[in-house]
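Hey, quick one: can you model this chain's 3D structure?
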Amino acid sequence: MKYHKSLINSLLLIFLLGALTSFHKFYLSVSEFRYSDQDQTLQVTSRIFTDDLEQLMEDRYGITAHWLTPKQHPSAQAQLEKYLTQRFVVKQDGKTLPLKLLGLKEQNDVFVLFMEFSVTDWAQAKQLSVQNRVLMDLFEAQQNVVHFYLKGKKSSVVLDWDRPQTIQDF
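Sure thing. Here's the predicted structure for all 170 residues.
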């Protein structure tokens, strides 16, 4: 009986420790790159946790964004676009492409950001460089997964504090 009670207590302890560690926050964003022939743009969707984006706006710009509500701060989208321009840098053959934040929508606990980058002569492009340091200034453990669906190839990379940039050669 003692053995049985000890086993149950051990399993209960393991369960509780596992449950506590499951509450540990992880910091992740996921971005997808696709080229649109029709618009001659790189179209990017990024998924970022809602609470992380809210914290960004409070910590960096001192505003409560209230995204997608009637109380949305009037400068929230402009501040976010400014931040993204500095932290999400895309270059085609060494030339920085201008970022345009088209908007965002909420899905569960995640915001989906829609961005585009105007490109020139995509058919002749030899290299695409992406530096994604979004939220790395707030969270040291931030990881930004980038998926590329470009020129008939699919590739993915995880960017983090030690490696915030990737280069795709075509």
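One thing worth noting: The chain has a mean pLDDT of 89.
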